[in-house]
Design brief:
350 residues; mainly alpha; Fic-like fold; Arc Repressor Mutant, subunit A; two-stranded antiparallel ribbon; 14 helices; 61% helix
């Protein structure tokens, strides 16, 4: 019988990361208690998650357009992209109805996510598929279509009976869904949704964490971790490493958005759309700042161009934030521009 542990080799660093995430969850809980409107805070983060998860797969709608679609406002954009957002919003809002270890729930979630978008919505694929790079090179071939139902059942059974920590278990299941590639389309969106679901069953706060947003900010790292996890057979240790860092950063981001919103003068009641737009803009700005600090904590020698590549933003944007951090006394530069390093002066920063 397959076990979750058969998909990876353990890393001694995971225990420290898991401990840090446990501590951060207490900060998340406190930040919600201090926030003036938890429901709006959660909705803002879910809108960001829906935008990120669909954008990773090529959806062209901006975050503001996604918010408008979700709020029932007219949006000028490709009908397929609008439908993808509507479907994803529905699927995320149905999280409470899904059982992470039930094949029927997985198929139902896929049906919601891909409704009227593909021919085999809510069904395992009947054709062979491959993930192809823009230059035509095959990055990964999915499992044979005839084997997909059995592979998925064994994966979910292994996840349900696993004694691994939910942070590890959910990451391994996420990776294996991508590896098996059980659907004709929508595998990435379902894999990310399913990790969120597994984590939310462990701690309900994870239903609202912007994990997908952090994946989107480091999309290159996401695909690199997927590739490295099957470079020589299946060992999703690199992917678990990546996801633990993403989860940690998503908690920092949630705390920051909650903190800024609670002290920014945003009214607890009033124009829903206006409040959400302000919150989303705050979320984007605060999220980038939290990401930069988190990367500098891991590697103080990172340059602005390297940070930009990691975050998927421009070097000019990074440089602007670095200057702001220096002006505020949050960080300082030690040594020369080329060979120096960054020192975080305020250790309370995420």
């Amino acid at each position: 019988m397959n076990t979750i542990r058969s998909y990876y080799t353990e890393s001694p660093r995971w225990h420290e990361k898991i401990g840090g995430i446990h501590a951060l969850l207490e900060r998340v809980k406190m930040s919600e208690e201090q926030c003036g409107d938890v429901l709006r805070l959660r909705k803002i983060n879910r809108i960001m998650s829906v935008h990120a998860s669909t954008a990773i797969e090529g959806n062209t709608l901006t975050l503001e357009q996604v918010a408008a679609v979700i709020n029932g406002k007219p949006v000028l954009g490709p009908p397929k992209d609008i439908k993808e957002v509507q479907n994803a919003w529905r699927a995320y809002n149905e999280l409470d109805n899904y059982n992470p270890w039930d094949v029927t729930s997985l198929l139902n979630a896929h049906a919601s996510m891909t409704d009227r978008l593909i021919g085999e919505s809510g069904q395992f694929r009947t054709v062979e598929v491959a993930v192809v790079r823009s230059d035509g090179a095959v990055m990964h071939s999915g499992s044979p279509a005839t084997e997909v139902p059995g592979l998925v059942r064994r994966l979910l059974r292994a996840g349900e009976t696993s004694e691994a920590h939910p942070l590890i278990n959910s990451s391994a299941v996420h990776y294996m869904i991508e590896h098996i590639h059980p659907f004709r389309d929508g595998n990435g969106r379902i894999g990310r949704l399913w990790q969120t679901l597994i984590l939310a069953r462990w701690n309900p706060l994870f239903a609202w964490m912007p994990v997908e947003t952090l994946v989107h900010h480091n999309q290159a790292g996401y695909y690199k971790a997927l590739q490295e996890s099957h470079a020589d057979g299946v060992d999703c240790r690199p992917f678990i490493d990546f996801m633990l860092s993403v989860i940690e950063n998503s908690l920092y981001k949630y705390v920051d958005i909650a903190t800024v919103q609670s002290g920014s003068g945003i009214p607890a009641r009033g124009s829903t759309n206006a409040t959400e737009n302000v919150g989303i803009n705050v979320g984007i700005n605060v999220g980038i700042k939290a990401d930069i600090i988190a990367h500098l904590k891991r590697d103080s020698s990172l340059s602005a161009s390297r940070l930009a590549a990691l975050l998927g933003i421009t070097s000019r944007t990074v440089e602007r934030h670095l200057k702001s951090f220096q002006d505020q006394g949050i960080i300082k530069r030690v040594g020369s521009r080329k060979t120096g390093r960054w020192e975080i002066a305020n250790q309370d920063q995420p």
